Amino acid sequence: MTSCAQQIAAQDPVSDPYAVLRQAYAERDAERAAAAYVPDATLTYDYGDPIEKYEGSAAIARSFDDLFKRVDPELKLDLNFRTANSKTAKGRIEENGVYRLRFGDAETSFGTFKVVREATGQGRFISDFGTSATVDDFESLPGPVRLDQENEELDSAYYGTLTGRYKLDDQCDLIITHSIVRMFARNSCTNDWQGLNRKSGRIWTGGDRVLSDKELVAYEFFKEAEGADVIRIRKDNKITIAKKQPNYTREAVSFQSRDGLTLAGDLYRPANPNGLAMVLVHGSGPQDRNGYASIMAVTAEALAQRGHIVLTYDKRGVEKSQGDWSKMGFADLASDAISAMDWLAMQQDVGSNIGFAGSSQAGWVVAKAIEQGAKPGHVHLLGAAGSALTVEEQNLYNTEVRMRCAGIVEAEIRMALDQQEEFFKYVRTRSNPEKLDGLTKRASVYPALRDWLFPSSADVDFDAGDWFTTLELAFDPIPVWQDYDGRAVFVFSEYDDSTPTALATKRLEKLPGAKNGNFEIINLPGTQHIGLKADSVCKAGLGDVSGFNGLLFESFDRLASLSHRKARPD
């Protein structure tokens, strides 16, 4: 009579026992976990006294069952591996490495593994020996994780220790930031910016573009004997050493939203504060405290370097913040920004002059926060259509630019824009579906337009949480800025595919703040949406560009200058 584990193995042959274990942990299925092992396998845990050893499918299944029962059922189990060595000999594969087991967001444990498994057939484990390990053991191994590589995220606690400002031999600074998925390096003098590729947790390489597979420079992070954090930089057969500078500290913090959720983030405290403080506000999508491509971390670091106290936080439902960002409109996002400002105002050494900064969608969120009663002393917005346009206007512009770059003919572009405009009207008013459906039907016969069209009226689910039903499509920020009496710096770019710079600038220049000098409007030539130098609006992706326009960082100095100046009368 066969065991349950043997029956599972027969029904679902093992092609990768590591994948089977990962699935078994996710499902808390002890029998499936045991099916990753041959019937007479041995499993040994050397995590202290006593050593635990299990022989055979039944005993191994019981060991997993005991583990799963000890873990809070509300916690999602996520198991993954990094392999250090693998060799095949005499029909067997011998492997060792380090595993990582995440217990939801509550805890993460690590352990080594040394296994022997079948080289043919089902590939199951013959023996498995495990001991304790650390996050450094796991992250220091070269190469990607073994499973689900495309969804792997950086360990923010581990890689956060590597970020910061390092002094180079030529007295320029190297600024290291990280996003959810990669590290970035910026030179303070040239503003060259590289998205780095992981060789191991402590060794990263960069190319000639923000995103590049070339390995033109290598960055090796380590500690000197006296404990200083340094980077060994290898480029053109030369080695340069950069030492970390204590220009500011970064502390993990949390605060409560107005509806009682916990939002987590980082608080930057400069060594030489200038009396100003700033809350950073996200762009669109599931952004953490560091932002898309770490642009929020780049901003936070630059402001802290200039003396600002800065709070940046994970959007709801991202990283360590509770909730769900996908169903939040501008009012909800603004409420969280106000909660962040309120919390920051209560912290030691933070004065009353607190502002907002952000890019892209942050423009609407900041304007909505002011409309709800927030009183930021100063505002800095980059590439923010939400400083001067509605969502409808912005999306129509963005679609037109992208379609032109894709080479679609003018008549078809016009047809797609007409359909999109009518779609927004229908979503706002829920009226005249016949007109939308007619435009959709006529446009859908053109193959080039099918990926650009919005749904017909029958396909709109107003409860699904899509952005076009969640966001306030017709929210106009101009009346907010019309009445705003604080200081503001609005930064736009020549080659912005998301924001029509000329139109936004024209509208803002008419406002009292622009006329009395409380606003400064800066246009960056040869620059794309988030401040990176570009050759054209159609060649402005991260794989096309190599660095920031330095005027972006000068705009932070302009903000500080405005903020310390007395208000001028209208």
TrEMBL record:
Gene3D superfamilies: 3.10.450.50, alpha/beta hydrolase (3.40.50.1820). GO terms for molecular function: carboxylic ester hydrolase activity. Pfam families: Peptidase_S15. It comes from the Bacteria. Residues 259-379 form the Xaa-Pro dipeptidyl-peptidase-like domain. This is Xaa-Pro dipeptidyl-peptidase-like domain-containing protein. The lineage of its organism: Bacteria, Pseudomonadati, Pseudomonadota, Alphaproteobacteria, Sphingomonadales.
